Amino acid sequence: AAGLAGRAHLAPDPNKAMHQYVLDSWSTDTLPASDSVAIAQDADGYMWFGTQQGLLRFDGVRHRVFDRSKFFGLRSEAINALAVDSRGELWAGTNDGVYRLQGQQAIAYDVPGRSEPTVVVALLEDRSGRIWVGTLEGLGQVIATPEPHLALLPTLPKKWVGGMTEGPDGRI
User: Fold this and answer.
1) Residue 18: strand, helix, or coil
2) How far apart are the first and last CA of the chain?
3) Which region, left, alpha or beta, applies to residue 87 given φ > 0 means left and ψ of -120 to 50 means alpha?
4) Which among 10, 116, 140, 147 could disulfide-bond with 133, CB atoms 3.0 to 4.6 Å apart, if both were Cys?
5) Is 77 in contact with 56 (CB distance < 8 Å)?
6) Residue 150: which pLDDT band, with cuts at 50, 70 and 90?
7) Which long-range contacts (CB under 8 A, 24 or more apart) does 144-151 make?
């Protein structure tokens, strides 16, 4: 799949009655951060929620907050977009750019020569493995080599790109 929405799961077992399943719910006042604006599931099955106070990871039982103190290099706790790429790596779009989160390291992909922050609000991996970035200023792309960075594309008018999808012809 071209998107970063996570893995598909199988339907419930048709041989089980609904009362054999357990349903847990949490009210927003018991969560450590309740203003989720982004969601992704990683390769290990953890659910990640992007909030204005950082990342919230849910393992099916417990919630754990990952703020800047948990990710070395993360400059903003406001997480606007989340995605898991085809290699299973978690990406975060923040009020201060785009990051690849690896272990406890946040690897920033900045626009070269730019001093003001780039507000990232959408992420998409295309079928070629390229990471596309929606910002308040337009469309960008993560460039891995020679020096990893974020390139804002000059071909579009500078307009907010809040969502993206890949068409059957491969165009974004």
Assistant:
1) helix
2) 14
3) alpha
4) 140
5) no
6) very high
7) 147/112, 148/107, 148/109, 149/109, 149/110, 149/111, 149/112, 150/97, 150/98, 150/109, 150/110, 150/111, 150/118, 151/111
- How confident is the model over 154-163, as pLDDT tens digits? 877 778 898 9
How large is the average pLDDT for residues 119-127? Answer: 95
C-alpha 6/C-alpha 85 separation (Å) is 8
User: Residue 136: which region, alpha, beta or left (left: phi > 0; alpha: psi -120 to 50)?
Assistant: alpha
Q: Which two tokens stand for residue 14?
A: 């048709």
Enter the tokens of residue 101.
Answer: 């989160």
Q: Under a CB-based contact definition with an 8 Å cutoff, are residues 80 and 91 in contact?
A: no
Greatest CA separation for the chain: 60
pTM of the predicted model over 0.85: no
CA distance to 40, 44, 167, per residue, from 82 (Å): 6, 15, 21
